């Protein structure tokens, strides 16, 4: 009986070791002249520094966290994202199902936290997806309380050995009451990325969106990011 228990214990240890060997832990850092999220600036058109840690298993399951400074006009703050999900491929078709929690711990950003379900699919150079607000701390019937839907279509191409270009069109459909007015908007974005190997990736972005403030200025953004 003791040998059987010992064999089970050893098997569990070996299974755990195998599972760890099949998983990968990565980190990332980034700097941008303007933190854009779905076409809207999260920093009042100012710069942002970000970083994150990701854990991914070869089975397709993943977990991660990411953080950045923000400024919505009520003082400097912090955004911390926690996410997890499952991503896999069937031939040329890829899919990703995940949950992400947007957490804003800074004073002045109370009632901003929200939970989102994300679904996406890809085929070769095309990707489409949607994100649905499951629950948020905002007032009922306000944006990011629940029921909001963001959907997008994007395409990406490698145009040279170290150069790639991508384009995205997205729309935000907020489930808000008439008291909050019409805050829905559509945005478009083009990204040109230059890979510099060990020096990371440099991206030049042109983005245009009709935001809540009524501003539809074209934004030009330069970013740098590196994973290790």
What does this structure look like?
This protein is mostly beta strands. It contains 1 helix and 14 strands; from the N terminus they run αββββββββββββββ. The strands form 2 sheets. Strands 1-4-5-6-7-8-9-10-11-12-13-14 form a 12-stranded antiparallel beta barrel. Strands 2-3 form a two-stranded antiparallel ribbon.
The average pLDDT score comes to: 90
Which sheet architecture does the biggest sheet show?
12 strands, antiparallel, barrel
Distance between the termini: 46 Å
Radius of gyration: 20 Å
Number of continuous helical runs: 1
Quaternary status: single chain
Strand content: over 45%
How does the overall form come out from the CA principal axes? globular
Query: Helical amount among residues, as a percent range?
Result: under 10%
Strand order of the largest sheet: 1-4-5-6-7-8-9-10-11-12-13-14
List the secondary-structure elements in sequence, H or E. HEEEEEEEEEEEEEE
Q: Please tally the β strands and state the result.
A: 14
- Summing up helix and strand content along with how strands pair, one would put the structural category as mainly beta
Q: Which stretches of 5+ consecutive residues score pLDDT under 50?
A: 1-15
């Amino acid at each position: 009986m003791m040998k059987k228990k010992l064999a089970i214990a050893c098997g569990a240890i070996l299974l755990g070791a195998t599972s760890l060997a099949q998983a990968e832990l990565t980190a990332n850092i980034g700097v941008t002249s303007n933190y854009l999220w779905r076409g809207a600036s999260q920093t009042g058109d100012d710069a942002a520094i970000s970083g994150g840690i990701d854990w991914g298993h070869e089975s397709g399951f993943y977990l991660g966290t990411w953080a950045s400074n923000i400024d919505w006009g009520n003082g400097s703050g912090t955004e911390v994202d926690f996410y997890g999900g499952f991503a896999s491929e069937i031939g040329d078709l890829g899919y990703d199902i995940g949950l992400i929690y947007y957490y804003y711990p800074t004073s002045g950003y109370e009632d901003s936290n929200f939970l989102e379900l994300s679904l996406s699919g890809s085929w070769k150079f095309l990707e489409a997806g949607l994100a649905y607000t499951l629950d948020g701390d905002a007032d009922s019937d306000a944006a990011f309380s629940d029921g909001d839907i963001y959907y997008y279509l994007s395409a990406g191409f490698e145009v040279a050995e170290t150069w790639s270009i991508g384009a995205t069109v997205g729309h935000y459909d907020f489930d808000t009451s008439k008291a909050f007015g019409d805050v829905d908007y559509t945005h478009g974005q083009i990204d040109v990325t230059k890979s510099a190997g060990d020096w990371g990736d440099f991206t030049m972005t042109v983005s245009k969106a009709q935001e809540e403030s009524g501003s539809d200025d074209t934004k030009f953004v330069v970013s740098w990011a590196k994973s290790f």
